[in-house]
Write a structure and sequence with these properties.
The complex is a heterodimer of chains A (129) and B (117). Chain A is 77% helix and 0% strand. Chain A is an all-alpha fold. Chain A has a single domain, classed as Fumarate reductase/succinate dehydrogenase, transmembrane subunit (3 helical TM bundles of succinate and fumarate reductases), CATH 1.20.1300. In chain A, helix 4 runs antiparallel to helix 5. Chain A is elongated, with a radius of gyration of 20 Å. Chain A starts with 6 loop residues before the first helix and ends in a 5-residue tail after the last helix. Chain B has one domain: 3 helical TM bundles of succinate and fumarate reductases (Up-down Bundle), CATH 1.20.1300.10. The longest helix of chain B is centred in the first third of the chain and has 33 residues. The termini of chain B are far apart. The chains are: A mainly alpha (129), B mainly alpha (117). Chains A and B meet through helix 2, helix 3, helix 4 and helix 5 of A and helix 1, helix 2, helix 3 and helix 4 of B.
Chain lengths: 129, 117
Protein backbone atom coordinates (compact mmCIF):
# COMPACT_ATOMS: atom_id res chain seq x y z
CA UNK A 1 0.00 0.00 0.00
CA UNK A 2 1.58 3.25 -1.11
CA UNK A 3 -0.75 5.60 0.69
CA UNK A 4 -2.55 5.53 4.00
CA UNK A 5 -5.45 7.42 2.47
CA UNK A 6 -8.56 5.38 1.84
CA UNK A 7 -9.37 4.84 -1.86
CA UNK A 8 -12.73 6.54 -1.33
CA UNK A 9 -11.11 9.55 0.29
CA UNK A 10 -8.62 9.82 -2.59
CA UNK A 11 -11.32 9.60 -5.25
CA UNK A 12 -13.53 12.14 -3.49
CA UNK A 13 -10.54 14.42 -2.81
CA UNK A 14 -11.30 14.48 0.90
CA UNK A 15 -8.88 14.92 3.76
CA UNK A 16 -9.50 13.84 7.32
CA UNK A 17 -12.16 15.81 9.11
CA UNK A 18 -11.50 14.24 12.51
CA UNK A 19 -8.51 15.00 14.75
CA UNK A 20 -6.83 17.02 11.99
CA UNK A 21 -9.12 19.95 12.63
CA UNK A 22 -8.76 19.70 16.41
CA UNK A 23 -6.11 22.44 16.63
CA UNK A 24 -8.03 24.71 14.27
CA UNK A 25 -11.32 24.18 16.12
CA UNK A 26 -9.83 24.77 19.58
CA UNK A 27 -8.21 27.96 18.30
CA UNK A 28 -11.62 29.22 17.08
CA UNK A 29 -13.46 28.18 20.27
CA UNK A 30 -10.87 29.85 22.49
CA UNK A 31 -10.85 33.02 20.38
CA UNK A 32 -14.65 33.31 20.57
CA UNK A 33 -14.53 32.87 24.36
CA UNK A 34 -11.68 35.35 24.73
CA UNK A 35 -13.62 38.22 23.15
CA UNK A 36 -16.02 38.67 26.11
CA UNK A 37 -13.49 37.43 28.71
CA UNK A 38 -10.70 39.88 27.81
CA UNK A 39 -13.14 42.78 27.43
CA UNK A 40 -14.65 41.96 30.85
CA UNK A 41 -11.18 41.72 32.44
CA UNK A 42 -9.95 45.01 30.97
CA UNK A 43 -13.09 46.94 31.91
CA UNK A 44 -13.28 45.45 35.44
CA UNK A 45 -9.62 46.08 36.20
CA UNK A 46 -9.77 49.65 34.94
CA UNK A 47 -13.00 50.27 36.87
CA UNK A 48 -11.46 49.37 40.23
CA UNK A 49 -11.13 52.49 42.39
CA UNK A 50 -7.50 51.60 43.14
CA UNK A 51 -5.06 48.75 42.75
CA UNK A 52 -4.03 48.42 46.39
CA UNK A 53 -4.00 44.93 47.88
CA UNK A 54 -7.27 45.16 49.82
CA UNK A 55 -9.22 46.43 46.82
CA UNK A 56 -7.82 43.79 44.47
CA UNK A 57 -8.35 40.93 46.97
CA UNK A 58 -11.93 42.03 47.68
CA UNK A 59 -12.63 42.11 43.96
CA UNK A 60 -10.88 38.80 43.21
CA UNK A 61 -12.54 36.95 46.09
CA UNK A 62 -16.02 37.52 44.66
CA UNK A 63 -17.30 34.24 43.21
CA UNK A 64 -18.06 35.59 39.76
CA UNK A 65 -14.75 37.40 39.49
CA UNK A 66 -12.80 34.31 40.53
CA UNK A 67 -14.76 32.09 38.16
CA UNK A 68 -14.32 34.41 35.15
CA UNK A 69 -10.63 34.97 36.00
CA UNK A 70 -10.01 31.21 36.08
CA UNK A 71 -11.76 30.86 32.72
CA UNK A 72 -9.69 33.74 31.35
CA UNK A 73 -6.39 32.22 32.50
CA UNK A 74 -7.24 28.73 31.18
CA UNK A 75 -8.65 29.85 27.84
CA UNK A 76 -5.90 32.45 27.30
CA UNK A 77 -3.08 29.99 28.02
CA UNK A 78 -4.74 27.44 25.73
CA UNK A 79 -5.12 30.01 22.93
CA UNK A 80 -1.57 31.24 23.47
CA UNK A 81 -0.14 27.72 23.39
CA UNK A 82 -1.97 26.93 20.13
CA UNK A 83 -0.86 30.23 18.62
CA UNK A 84 2.83 30.17 19.49
CA UNK A 85 2.96 26.52 18.40
CA UNK A 86 1.96 27.53 14.88
CA UNK A 87 4.45 30.39 14.90
CA UNK A 88 7.28 28.08 16.02
CA UNK A 89 6.29 25.40 13.50
CA UNK A 90 6.35 27.99 10.72
CA UNK A 91 9.56 29.81 11.54
CA UNK A 92 11.87 27.36 13.34
CA UNK A 93 13.10 25.10 10.56
CA UNK A 94 15.64 22.95 12.38
CA UNK A 95 13.75 19.87 13.63
CA UNK A 96 15.72 19.55 16.85
CA UNK A 97 15.40 23.14 17.99
CA UNK A 98 11.77 23.20 16.86
CA UNK A 99 10.88 20.22 19.05
CA UNK A 100 12.86 21.61 21.97
CA UNK A 101 11.19 25.03 21.64
CA UNK A 102 7.75 23.41 21.51
CA UNK A 103 8.47 21.29 24.59
CA UNK A 104 9.67 24.33 26.56
CA UNK A 105 6.73 26.48 25.44
CA UNK A 106 4.24 23.76 26.37
CA UNK A 107 5.79 23.43 29.84
CA UNK A 108 5.76 27.23 30.30
CA UNK A 109 2.09 27.40 29.31
CA UNK A 110 1.14 24.53 31.61
CA UNK A 111 2.99 26.27 34.44
CA UNK A 112 1.26 29.60 33.73
CA UNK A 113 -2.17 27.96 33.67
CA UNK A 114 -1.64 26.12 36.97
CA UNK A 115 0.02 29.08 38.70
CA UNK A 116 -2.72 31.45 37.57
CA UNK A 117 -5.57 29.19 38.70
CA UNK A 118 -3.78 28.41 41.97
CA UNK A 119 -3.32 32.12 42.74
CA UNK A 120 -6.96 32.97 41.98
CA UNK A 121 -8.26 30.07 44.11
CA UNK A 122 -5.96 31.00 46.99
CA UNK A 123 -7.33 34.55 46.97
CA UNK A 124 -10.92 33.35 46.48
CA UNK A 125 -10.69 31.01 49.47
CA UNK A 126 -9.31 33.77 51.66
CA UNK A 127 -5.65 32.74 51.66
CA UNK A 128 -4.23 36.13 50.75
CA UNK A 129 -5.80 38.42 53.32
CA UNK B 1 -0.16 37.60 -1.66
CA UNK B 2 -0.41 41.36 -1.65
CA UNK B 3 1.25 43.67 0.79
CA UNK B 4 -1.75 44.50 2.99
CA UNK B 5 -2.68 40.86 3.57
CA UNK B 6 0.94 39.94 4.30
CA UNK B 7 1.21 42.83 6.76
CA UNK B 8 -2.10 42.17 8.54
CA UNK B 9 -1.25 38.47 8.87
CA UNK B 10 2.22 39.03 10.31
CA UNK B 11 0.91 41.78 12.62
CA UNK B 12 -1.73 39.42 13.98
CA UNK B 13 0.97 36.83 14.76
CA UNK B 14 3.32 39.41 16.23
CA UNK B 15 0.65 40.91 18.49
CA UNK B 16 -0.35 37.38 19.52
CA UNK B 17 3.21 36.62 20.62
CA UNK B 18 3.37 39.94 22.48
CA UNK B 19 0.15 39.01 24.32
CA UNK B 20 1.64 35.60 25.19
CA UNK B 21 4.43 37.49 26.95
CA UNK B 22 1.69 39.54 28.62
CA UNK B 23 0.41 36.30 30.15
CA UNK B 24 3.67 36.16 32.13
CA UNK B 25 2.91 39.60 33.56
CA UNK B 26 -0.68 38.60 34.35
CA UNK B 27 0.32 35.43 36.20
CA UNK B 28 3.14 37.24 38.03
CA UNK B 29 0.57 39.81 39.20
CA UNK B 30 -1.93 37.09 40.23
CA UNK B 31 0.76 35.29 42.22
CA UNK B 32 1.70 38.59 43.88
CA UNK B 33 -1.94 39.19 44.88
CA UNK B 34 -2.08 35.66 46.32
CA UNK B 35 1.20 36.21 48.15
CA UNK B 36 -0.31 38.72 50.57
CA UNK B 37 0.14 42.38 51.34
CA UNK B 38 3.94 42.72 51.47
CA UNK B 39 4.84 40.64 48.38
CA UNK B 40 2.09 42.52 46.54
CA UNK B 41 3.62 45.88 47.50
CA UNK B 42 7.02 44.76 46.19
CA UNK B 43 5.51 43.51 42.94
CA UNK B 44 3.40 46.65 42.64
CA UNK B 45 6.56 48.75 42.79
CA UNK B 46 8.14 46.75 39.96
CA UNK B 47 4.92 46.65 37.95
CA UNK B 48 4.44 50.43 38.15
CA UNK B 49 7.95 51.32 36.95
CA UNK B 50 8.48 53.30 33.76
CA UNK B 51 9.70 50.16 32.00
CA UNK B 52 6.43 48.39 32.73
CA UNK B 53 4.42 51.41 31.57
CA UNK B 54 6.06 50.91 28.19
CA UNK B 55 5.11 47.23 28.35
CA UNK B 56 1.47 48.12 29.16
CA UNK B 57 1.37 50.52 26.21
CA UNK B 58 2.66 47.74 23.96
CA UNK B 59 0.26 45.18 25.41
CA UNK B 60 -2.64 47.58 25.02
CA UNK B 61 -1.96 48.18 21.32
CA UNK B 62 -1.32 44.46 20.76
CA UNK B 63 -4.56 43.55 22.58
CA UNK B 64 -6.63 45.99 20.51
CA UNK B 65 -5.18 44.83 17.21
CA UNK B 66 -5.35 41.10 18.01
CA UNK B 67 -8.94 41.44 19.26
CA UNK B 68 -10.18 43.29 16.18
CA UNK B 69 -8.14 41.23 13.70
CA UNK B 70 -9.32 38.07 15.47
CA UNK B 71 -12.94 39.08 14.97
CA UNK B 72 -12.09 39.62 11.26
CA UNK B 73 -10.77 36.05 11.16
CA UNK B 74 -13.94 34.75 12.79
CA UNK B 75 -16.02 36.55 10.15
CA UNK B 76 -13.84 34.93 7.47
CA UNK B 77 -14.56 31.54 9.06
CA UNK B 78 -18.23 32.02 8.25
CA UNK B 79 -17.22 32.32 4.60
CA UNK B 80 -17.91 36.04 4.39
CA UNK B 81 -15.59 38.83 3.30
CA UNK B 82 -13.11 36.65 1.42
CA UNK B 83 -13.21 38.62 -1.83
CA UNK B 84 -10.06 40.57 -2.51
CA UNK B 85 -11.75 43.98 -2.40
CA UNK B 86 -13.61 43.11 0.82
CA UNK B 87 -10.45 41.78 2.47
CA UNK B 88 -8.55 44.94 1.57
CA UNK B 89 -11.37 47.05 2.95
CA UNK B 90 -11.63 45.05 6.20
CA UNK B 91 -7.86 45.34 6.70
CA UNK B 92 -8.37 49.11 6.72
CA UNK B 93 -11.34 48.82 9.06
CA UNK B 94 -9.28 46.68 11.47
CA UNK B 95 -6.52 49.30 11.52
CA UNK B 96 -8.97 52.16 12.07
CA UNK B 97 -10.91 50.41 14.86
CA UNK B 98 -7.61 49.37 16.50
CA UNK B 99 -6.39 52.96 16.59
CA UNK B 100 -9.67 54.29 18.03
CA UNK B 101 -9.84 51.48 20.61
CA UNK B 102 -6.17 51.83 21.60
CA UNK B 103 -6.46 55.61 22.03
CA UNK B 104 -9.65 55.22 24.11
CA UNK B 105 -8.20 52.46 26.32
CA UNK B 106 -4.87 54.29 26.56
CA UNK B 107 -6.67 57.42 27.73
CA UNK B 108 -8.62 55.40 30.29
CA UNK B 109 -5.54 53.57 31.57
CA UNK B 110 -2.95 56.35 31.64
CA UNK B 111 -5.02 59.51 32.06
CA UNK B 112 -8.50 58.93 33.50
CA UNK B 113 -7.72 56.02 35.83
CA UNK B 114 -4.15 57.20 36.32
CA UNK B 115 -3.18 53.55 36.58
CA UNK B 116 0.21 52.00 36.24
CA UNK B 117 1.34 54.97 38.28
Amino acid sequence: MKSLRSPLGRVAGLGSAKSGVHHWWLQRLSSIALVPLTVWFTVSLLSLPSLDHVTVVTWMAQSWTALLLILLVLVATCHSQLGVRVVVEDYVHNTGSRTLTLVILTFVHAFLAVAGVFAILKVAFGGAA
Amino acid sequence: MSRYSLLSSITNRLTGVVLSVGLLVLVYWLMAVAGGNRPYLQAHEILSSGFFKLIYAGLLVAFCYHLVAGIRHLVWDTGRGMERAQAKQSAGVVLAVTIVLAVALGYWLFVAAGRAS
